[in-house]
Amino acid sequence: MPVILRTGRDLPAPDTWDRWLACTGSHPPLEMVRHLPELAKKLEAAFTANCAEWWELGRRLGSEPSGRLAHAPTAASYNSDLGLMLAWGKLVENVAAETPTTLVVCDDPWVFRDLAGRPGVSAGRAPALWPARLRFAFRGWAARLRYALRAALWSTQMRQHRGVFNRSAGAALLVYGHPASTADGDDAYFGSLMRTQPHVLRLLHTDCPADRARALAADGRTASLHAWGRWRWIPAVLTARWRPDLQTLSGPRGWLVRRAAGIENGGGAIAANTWQIRCQERWMATVRPDRVVWPWENHPWERAFVRAARRAGIATYGYQHTVVGPHQTNFAPATNPDGLESIPDLVVCNGPAYRDQLRGWGLPEERLIIGGAFRIARPAGSRHDPSGPVFVALSSSRPLSNKMMAAVVATARSTERRFVVKDHPLYPYAIAETETVRRTSRTIPEHTGLAAVIYATGTSGMEGLLAGVPTLRFLPDDRIAVDVLPESLPVFPVTAETLGTALTTLPEPPRVAWDALYAPVDEALWQRLLCAAPVASASVDTHMPATRPDSRTVQIGTVL
Fold first, then answer.
1. Are 168 and 69 found together in one domain?
2. Both 123 and 156 in a single domain?
3. Of 23, 40, 22, nearest in space to 31 by CA
4. N or C: which end of the chain has fewer CB within 10 A?
């Protein structure tokens, strides 16, 4: 058979296979000289090719009542690894169709069983399921109990916040408690809108801790959504589960669905979505605002919010506040079981590139409009210096950051390159500094000269391109580095094996038009959205021209 499937404890004789790969966290003691070449690129290609399958499966899973609480049915790459597991299956099918015999090492009990049913696979003994099931069951109960008690406690502590909405609540911003937001009118997602439009109130998502909510509520215009919570909801939170139907569980991807449900039921995400949805529905029923704007990403609680708001006659405006790349497939309406019914009345995009991305994914033209970028400013000149250090932007994923740092340290030892490493602002990372590897707290625009930028996820890649610095996207060989940039941008993929070579043959500095990606904040549009009568999608000019790019720059993906 072209593929021999085994666990790490049941490895076959070395002379029975030609090459090997390991998936789902397995680390067999095998020689790297026989490791499958370019595994990172092949895994990403399989992930991209499987997008339609995840969409189709997600829509079916989300049609079930309990599935509407889960992240896997929304095809959210940052919140679920179901897409990655589908990609491993696709990759194994691909190598099974090739001539060399490939040893696939997998210790995950669900993924092993899924791979064993793929064509061209000869499987050994599967790992036991009961230890993982028992671990998820205990962990899930503990996570739900902890979340339920904490949320109920915060609802008591935040109850006085209801008074913020005693005044007329015509327009409200529903936001996360971002560390960059302040109590003096600045919000990380909506800039200075609260200063320029003093009638607008701010509501904090339930993921915002009590101490952070109290700090932001000092402005007298901000309230925590926890204030509308009730202790009597604790039983519903404790018993919340995602329960896929038997037909799906017995289908061709049933083992992967079982795994995804086990993971989500084994944490606090389902409980958190249940509490958020109940709080927001009670808030809408008691406050009855005219319209609500929030940073939109098409997550489960947002879909429930739109449905409830539509029933109550509340206008919904979702702000596409960040980058939306080809891997952030949750933004597409393809997995929404009710189609556009759970998509906001208007999706306000931060620029033309992402408007086009969403339109290509099926959002209708009349539901899209450009409102400008609050979070990504126009760059103030080039930051490129061939003799400067290489900027390394670590990921929010610790395993991915570990991979990046291992590659950087190895490259620093074998070259004369200097590196400055910045960890994610919300996920601190211990960096072992050396003479050539240093920690930095400054962002890319705050550096005066950089030779290159290395990133895996997040917006640092965009910052590097806009700063005119050669930008390298790091690809791991055991997971997906979620691509958040528009297609065709001049970003160069590298792996742990190719990083050193890539740094010796850096391309010319890119010149990417900021105006081709983003637009200045349209203050008149935001004034109409937040102050005038609720704006129906058909009444807004969605064909507002983007700012014309400077004649010296080029459109997306073109390098001068």
1. no
2. no
3. 22
4. C
Query: Do 365 and 286 fall into the same domain?
Result: yes
Burial class (CB in 10 A: 0-12, 13-18, 19+), 197: middle
pLDDT tens per residue, range 109-156: 999 999 999 999 999 999 999 999 999 999 999 999 999 999 999 999
The pTM score is: 0.90
Q: Tell whether 91 and 121 lie within a shared domain.
A: yes
pLDDT in tens, 278-334: 999 999 999 999 999 999 999 999 999 999 999 999 999 999 988 888 899 999 999
| 199 shares its domain with 221 | yes
Cα(105)–Cα(111) distance, integer angstroms: 11
Do both 117 and 207 map to the same domain? no
Per-residue pLDDT at 224: 97
The average pLDDT across 248-260 equals: 94
Rounded (10°) angle between helices 39-49 and 82-96? 110
Boundary of a domain, candidates 128, 155, 173: 128
**One domain for residues 148 and 11:** no
Confidence at residue 556, expressed as pLDDT on a 0 to 100 scale: 32
Number of domains observed in the structure of the chain: 3
Distances (CA, A) of 361 to 52, 58, 326, 332, 466: 11, 15, 10, 5, 25
Q: What is the CATH number of the domain that holds 446?
A: 3.40.50
Assigned token pair, 515:
């105006």
User: Smallest Cα–Cα separation from 188: which of 376, 15, 379, 446?
Assistant: 376
CA distance 456 to 322: 16
**Domain assignment of residue 475, given as a range:** 390-504
pLDDT tens column, 524-548: 999 999 985 555 544 444 333 333 2
Asked whether 472 and 452 are in contact (CB, 8 A), the reply is yes
| Cα–Cα distance list, 118 to 1, 93, 115, 361, 560 (Å) | 12, 7, 5, 30, 46
Token readout for 78 is 């940052």
- Beta-sheet pairing, 492-494 with 437-439: unpaired
Domain assignment present for residue 190? The answer is yes
Query: Could you tell me if 517 and 323 are in contact, meaning their C-beta atoms sit under 8 angstroms apart?
Result: no
